[in-house]
Amino acid sequence: MAILVLIRRFGGYVKELIRSNDPVLLSYLMSVLEEERIDAILLDEHTSILEGSIGAIQRRIMVLEEDLERAKDILDDIGEGETPA
Fold this sequence. Notes:
Layout: H1 2-10, E1 14-20, H2 23-35, E2 40-43, H3 45-50, E3 59-64, H4 68-77
Antiparallel strand pairs: 1-3, 2-3
């Protein structure tokens, strides 16, 4: 549902930027992306809580396709540059 809202709101496709089980890292990245005016959404947050936070389901940060390269550059700059293909 959240992806559909993002697509409708911003009129584009979303791509995965990073996935992680580290809530501190994810929170930090969401903050940095917001500062850089890159719209992002955190997926699977509630699912990972339901499974007991044992790490089986990673949370994902998604960004608009048009912002993906800039967001990847930001990840590289802060030392979290290992992103999915």
